[in-house]
């Protein structure tokens, strides 16, 4: 993998985090060598507290000693800082970039937000409410994929793009969620394009490389032991 313009690249993360997975996917796609540092989120390192003093959460990318926080921001930074390393993740056209950023915000606010609450809900009634909101948001996202993919199978069209990376980070968790709650949010009978997208994304080389640690059964056990406590760990 290519180096980071001669400057050391570090990633502070947590193995189960879909937000950290986003960053790993972007680094892999750009061919950037980096040092991964697993954080114990019950006993956060001084480096994490110093690098992200506002939220004290992972992921944090440190490039040349300078920290960058928040997964969306980090993926955009990687795309810009290592633009010569591989094909750009964000489109070159300003309007298309704006559209991609709009759907990125939608994914985090309207899809991942309620989806996480499905895992954290304390009662069946609460889980049903959050599941309904997630299904409604996914229906809209299916329309977003139609607009972005231009008849191709990915949000980026022929090649993996920014939105593919952001949504792709949660793919193992989608399988884990179905085992935990019984909800298949990317059901082919309801959102065929997203179901096809997930199947295709799972088989990409970048996804295989990043997701090898995220065994679905292990994620299920992690969710039951950690996420159900409601602890926020990453962004």
Automatic annotation (TrEMBL):
<dbReference type="InterPro" id="IPR036282">
    <property type="entry name" value="Glutathione-S-Trfase_C_sf"/>
</dbReference>
<comment type="function">
    <text>Is involved in the conjugation of reduced glutathione to a wide number of exogenous and endogenous hydrophobic electrophiles.</text>
</comment>
<dbReference type="GO" id="GO:0004364">
    <property type="term" value="F:glutathione transferase activity"/>
</dbReference>
<dbReference type="InterPro" id="IPR010987">
    <property type="entry name" value="Glutathione-S-Trfase_C-like"/>
</dbReference>
<dbReference type="GO" id="GO:0005829">
    <property type="term" value="C:cytosol"/>
</dbReference>
<dbReference type="InterPro" id="IPR040079">
    <property type="entry name" value="Glutathione_S-Trfase"/>
</dbReference>
<dbReference type="InterPro" id="IPR045074">
    <property type="entry name" value="GST_C_Tau"/>
</dbReference>
<dbReference type="InterPro" id="IPR045073">
    <property type="entry name" value="Omega/Tau-like"/>
</dbReference>
<dbReference type="GO" id="GO:0006749">
    <property type="term" value="P:glutathione metabolic process"/>
</dbReference>
<keyword id="KW-0808">Transferase</keyword>
<dbReference type="GO" id="GO:0005737">
    <property type="term" value="C:cytoplasm"/>
</dbReference>
<keyword id="KW-0963">Cytoplasm</keyword>
<comment type="similarity">
    <text>Belongs to the GST superfamily. Tau family.</text>
</comment>
<protein>
    <recommendedName>
        <fullName>Glutathione S-transferase</fullName>
        <ecNumber>2.5.1.18</ecNumber>
    </recommendedName>
</protein>
<dbReference type="InterPro" id="IPR036249">
    <property type="entry name" value="Thioredoxin-like_sf"/>
</dbReference>
<feature type="domain" description="GST N-terminal">
    <location>
        <begin position="7"/>
        <end position="86"/>
    </location>
</feature>
<feature type="domain" description="GST C-terminal">
    <location>
        <begin position="93"/>
        <end position="218"/>
    </location>
</feature>
<dbReference type="Pfam" id="PF02798">
    <property type="entry name" value="GST_N"/>
</dbReference>
<dbReference type="InterPro" id="IPR004045">
    <property type="entry name" value="Glutathione_S-Trfase_N"/>
</dbReference>
